[in-house]
Design brief:
Blueprint (H helix, E strand, L loop, with lengths): L2 H32 L12 H21 L5 H25 L3 H18 L8
Helix pairs in contact: 1-2, 1-4, 2-3, 3-4
Length: about 130
């Protein structure tokens, strides 16, 4: 896996960790300021749902981080590809159901990561 792919995967994992933290721990406290278009009364009743989504994002981050430590190059690329595809699909669904901006934040980086993994530029060795 190229250094560029590893960097992209690490950045996506960091974003997933932030989203997980936000959903699990900061939804009620910081949600109203982060999403001012939503009614403030929405955040308390949806806290459990946001935490559940946070756990999913934590799992995605864990899988992406794990992919960076797989020793076999073929399996490293397969594991990374699987988790990047999960992120991309979640972004597409979020863009369709919630906001098109989600595709920019989630799907675009995941697709870039996949391209770095599978295109010849992504196969450059250190």
């Amino acid at each position: 896996m190229s250094i560029f792919a590893k960097i992209m995967i690490a950045l996506i994992a960091i974003l997933r960790l932030y989203i997980a933290w936000f959903g699990i721990f900061a939804w009620q406290a910081q949600g109203p300021a982060t999403f001012p278009d939503l009614p403030a009364s929405l955040f308390e009743p949806t806290a459990a749902m946001a935490a559940n989504q946070g756990v999913y994002n934590l799992c995605l981050a864990a899988g992406l981080i794990w992919s960076l430590f797989v020793r076999d190059a073929e399996w490293q690329r397969k594991v990374a590809s699987g988790f990047l595809l999960f992120v991309a699909v979640a972004g597409i669904f979020g863009a369709w159901r919630v906001s098109p901006d989600i595709a920019l934040v989630q799907t675009r980086p995941a697709v870039i990561g996949l391209l770095l993994l599978w295109l010849p530029v992504g196969k450059m060795r250190r």
